[in-house]
Amino acid sequence: MKSFTYERAATPAAATAAFARTPGARFIAGGTNLLDLMKLEIETPAHLVDVSRLGFDKIEATSAGGLRIGAMVRNTDLAADPRVRRDYGLLSRALVAGASGQLRNKATTAGNLLQRTRCPYFYDTNQPCNKRKPGSGCAAIGGFSRLHAVIGASEACIATHPSDMAVAMQALDAAVETVDAAGKARSIALADFYRAPGNTPHLETVLAPGELITAVTLPKPLGGTHIYHKVRDRASYAFALISVGAVIQRDGSGRVALGGVGYKPWRVPAADAELPRGAKAAASALLAGAKTSHENAYKLPLVERTLAAVLTQAKG
Amino acid sequence: MSTSENFPISRRGLLAGGAVSVAATTAAGAPAAEAQPARTKERPPTARVSFEVNGAAHELELDTRTTLLDALREHLRLTGTKKGCDHGQCGACTVIADGRRINSCLSLAVQHDGDKITTIEGLGLPGNLHPMQQAFVVHDGYQCGYCTPGQICSAVAVLGEIEAGIPSHVTADLSEAPKVTASELRERMSGNICRCGAYSNIIDAIADVAEVKA
After folding, report:
1. Rg (CA), chain A
2. A105 vs B102: CB contact, 8 Å cut-off?
3. Are B45 and A8 inside 8 Å of each other by CB?
4. Predicted ipTM?
5. pLDDT tens digit string along B192-203?
6. What is the distance between the alpha carbons of residues A33 and A40, in angstroms, rounded to a whole number?
């Protein structure tokens, strides 16, 4: 690990100011992904600003009837919150489908959104990777691409976003609240939060350097049946091959988002509208324009069949 | 062959700990050394951290890179906590920090200022075993034993998590309190890998402590 200086910020303003004045700074919260990458020297921050004690550890009701989830709320606490379990079951289900108990106890809401891909070529510093080293190429294209994106990818990168939580939040129309070094706050719809890889896959979100996530908000509850169905290589503690997060109403209408297929949780408004017509119609709309390799072509039928299972389960 | 010109550790750097020695080296006449960059001249940044481990207060000045795991093992000599993968994949390093089980390898020691840490040594020692340690002995919940401290710390915390009503992937109904069942224990223990494959006995041991049938 490269050496770095460390400071613990006491206020959000102190955190963003520390970031702004120190070249090579990074925020650290739970650190479960960042430290892993620092050990491999894929991440080499010169300065760490610890933002884990800024008071963003509460879940509060909003005036709109939804929830404001503090950026530092631990994954375990978010999954266990009685309001989340009652009104946003999809989010609880997605959270407990991810990682291990130990990691969920440390990982934060904002950190989960910002975690980086688990593409093995991103992790292997002997391989070219445009995300790790811009301009070096992509070893996953033409390589072992069984785990990789089937939609929204580019000629430069076919990595997927690994989060389960973000899939649920995408289906629930979450928004990300931030503050920057000038003290300016903004709210970004999660749908607009992740950047398509294009020619710059190292730029993963629309956050400006030093912009700090303070909370994630959820609109008022949707009702309906909440299901998160994750398909993985082992029964627990593995990243998704694909996952389907859905909220289905009694009349068959609803929302659906996919994990494991693209650079962000994948949601298509036209696919939601197709849900009453069944899994085949909705899956076709979700995956329109998909581009697969020999190794990950299985993801297209797997999405359709998993969605069929979800819709069957929703009928109870 | 590598020569002294490109060997990354210079004599100057190696001797930087003692000014007298450096002066002596220079006086002895090694002009080539003057041209070498003193790559180890700067000491790595350190930070001070205070925390409580197994009831005892500690204050340490640590290289900021020191993980909680390395602070426990290398600085406090609490070698019960094991380093397996060092990447949060195996669970051998599991300790309990402020009542929560975490992977101590994926946590910087300096992030734990003011925290209360419990390691396997803090749960119980020979002659005064924690009920979970005793149950692992009774049920033969290990073979080589390397993953065992992490398994036991995790197991103790798992029963606490179920009691606190924290749901898991296999909890059938989110509106009900989770129960201690074999499937709940298996799912919740999935972050602790046992290369010897003592899993069934580990589940028996945990179920015994919880007084349920696995």
Report:
1. 19
2. yes
3. no
4. 0.97
5. 999 999 999 999
6. 11
- Alpha-carbon separation of residue A235 from A109, A231, A238, B162, B188 (angstroms): 24, 9, 8, 20, 11
CA-CA-CA-CA torsion sign (A161, A165, A171, A175): negative
Verdict on whether the full-model pTM lies above 0.80: yes
Nearest to A97 among B106, B169, B191 (CB): B169
Pairwise CB contact (< 8 Å): B167 & A236: no
Q: Locate A206 and state its tokens.
A: 């629309």
What topology is assigned to B124-214 in CATH? Answer: DNA polymerase; domain 1 (1.10.150)
Would you list the domain boundaries of chain B? 45-123, 124-214
| Model pLDDT for residues A128-182, shown as the tens digit of each residue | 999 999 999 999 999 999 999 999 999 999 999 999 999 999 999 999 999 999 9
> In this complex, do B190 and A93 lie within 8 Å of one another by their Cβ atoms?
no
DSSP 8-class letter at B71 = I
> Parallel, antiparallel, or unpaired: how do β-strands A47-50 and A67-70 relate?
unpaired
Of A258, A300, A293, A291, give the one whose Cα is nearest residue A154: A291
Q: Does domain B45-123 have CATH number 3.30.1340.30?
A: no
pLDDT digits (tens, 9 = 90+) for A86-115: 999 999 999 999 999 999 999 999 999 999
CA atoms of A99 and B88, how far apart (whole Å): 10
- Report the residue from B102, B161, B189 with minimal CB separation from A106: B102
- Token look-up 């920090």 returns B97
Chain B: nearest CA to A161, how far in angstroms?
19
